[in-house]
Amino acid sequence: MSETGLHHVTAFAGSAARNLDFYTRVLGLRLVKKTVNFDDPGTYHLYYGDETGRPGTLLTFFPIAHAAPGRVGIGETQETAFRVPRASIGWWTHRLIEAGAAHEALVHAFGEPTLRFRDPDGMMLALVGTDDAGAALWTGGTVPAEHAIRGLHGVTLLLAEAGPTAAILTDVLGLTEAAREGSATRYVGGAAIGGSVTLRAVGGFLAGRTGAGSVHHIAFRAADDAAQTAMVARLREAHGLSVTEQRDRQYFRSIYFREPGGVLFEIATDAPGFAIDEPVAALGSGLKLPPGLEPHRAQIEDVLPKVA
Ligand code: ZN
User: In the list 158, 199, 289, 298, which could disulfide-bond 78, CB 3.0-4.6 Å?
Assistant: First the structure.
């Protein structure tokens, strides 16, 4: 089975410095790219992941200082979960207490120990203990390798009804239904890292409000341009959806569409990856701009807040 599942999750944050501190120091992720929002170059785009920023390990942010907090509602991502070894959940509970991070009591969801917590902007996160977490590929962080976050586990989407979204997951994005629990249905892709999408159908519910801590979109993997093109054709022809033209995101190439449940979906190519403009050893160390924005570097650096 090909590597299907999540490529990355992108959310809004408040303070860039606080966001960087939390994800690198508390959670031990690697900052794999410091760039700007290509559609709004006065705003950072910070990418966190494993050593090389493999697809499925990436959580990215647009930090906007003093942004009002968001509120999760239908048609949005409710929770973003990371994978850790099952035996590491206790270590993480202490870690979050030490860091003063708001967390809930341990629960079991789909048979897996799940520790729910929030980032400093109130974004809903979870650590999920799995038996097949695999080895950590980023060992240069602040968390011992045995406990390190392996990548994304998956996301939970809050929807009025699950069926139309499920059809896109299974018919276009390469996921299959794996389990049901209450009002939630879990779909999994071929990739272990970032392979899970859970749809929670809640009928009528409060609409969300976008703000700091809100997920802006989730991106799924396409092995290459040809695979992406085939997925776009299927979205348009079999599902009647409107899809953007391909956009060059420097580290991957993307298309975007609003899925029937209201969540903004992206399909991103695995290539070329983050080592295209700085060596793996130096990932995240410099402000990287795409060629089209490089002539404006001085003005861009002038408006961006200083982060470490
Ligand atoms: Zn994206």
Answer: 158
The phi, psi pair for 270, rounded to 5°, reads: -65, -35
Identify whether 1 is part of a domain. no
Tell me, in angstroms, the distance from the centre of ligand 1 to residue 97's CA. Answer: 31
Domain extent for 79? 6-303
pLDDT tens profile 198-231: 999 999 878 889 999 999 999 999 999 999 999 9
Q: Determine the distance separating the centroid of ligand 1 and the alpha carbon of 37, expressed in angstroms.
A: 10
The answer for residues whose C-beta is within 8 angstroms of residue 144's C-beta and 6 or more apart is none
Distance CA 81, CA 152 (A): 6
Distance in Å, CA 46 to ligand 1 centroid = 11
Cα-to-centroid distance, 217 and ligand 1 (Å):
6
Within a domain: residue 289? yes
211 CA from centroid of ligand 1 (Å)? 17
Number of domains in the chain: 1
Taking only the tens place, the pLDDT of each residue in 40-84 is: 999 999 999 999 999 999 999 999 999 999 999 999 999 999 999
Q: How far is the CA of 202 from the centre of ligand 1 (A)?
A: 26
Residue 211 CB burial class (10 angstroms; 0-12, 13-18, ≥19): middle
Whole-structure pTM over 0.90, yes or no? yes
Report how far ligand 1's centroid is from the alpha carbon of 84 (Å).
23
